[in-house]
Write a structure and sequence with these properties.
Layout: H1 2-8, H2 12-17, E1 19-25, E2 28-34, H3 48-64, E3 68-79, E4 87-97, E5 101-109, E6 115-129
Antiparallel strand pairs: 1-2, 2-4, 3-6, 4-5, 5-6
């Protein structure tokens, strides 16, 4: 899993957003985002794009954890709770894995464990090994 972690250190947008990979396992991943002023929208709650980006990184890590390139072909999110501060946690779980397709559910929670958003994603597996 060190190879996967090293590969995703090159994700410049996640780094710019302040997202940190917390855990990687085969078909699963956890990431977190400590909310600060740059993550807030005009009404003072965490921007949906910031939550999506957190979930998307966990999705990418989990789907590429098998060591082959997997790219998103579909992703959707439902926002369930507004957040203004604290740390957001995303946990990605592989629901289905086939040679060409994979399906994932990512749950985003706040510091109290309440669900903030549910993200569903599907990937296409290219079959190429992850680049070094």
């Amino acid at each position: 899993m060190d190879k996967i972690r090293k590969f995703f250190q090159k994700d410049r947008y996640a780094a710019l957003s302040g997202i940190e990979i917390v855990e990687i396992g085969e078909g699963r991943a956890k990431a977190q985002l400590t909310v600060d002023d740059r993550h807030l929208n005009g009404v003072g709650v965490v921007h949906g794009g910031a939550i999506f980006t957190l979930a998307d990184l966990a999705f990418a890590v989990a789907s590429n954890s098998h060591g082959t390139v997997a790219v998103a072909i579909n992703a959707g999110i439902s926002f369930l709770k507004a957040v203004r501060s604290g740390t957001l946690h995303a946990e990605a779980v592989e629901i289905s894995r086939h040679p060409k397709l994979g399906s994932y559910t990512i749950t985003v929670t706040d510091d109290t464990g309440e669900v903030v958003a549910i993200f569903q994603g599907m990937v296409y597996r290219k079959g190429d090994p992850l680049p070094e």
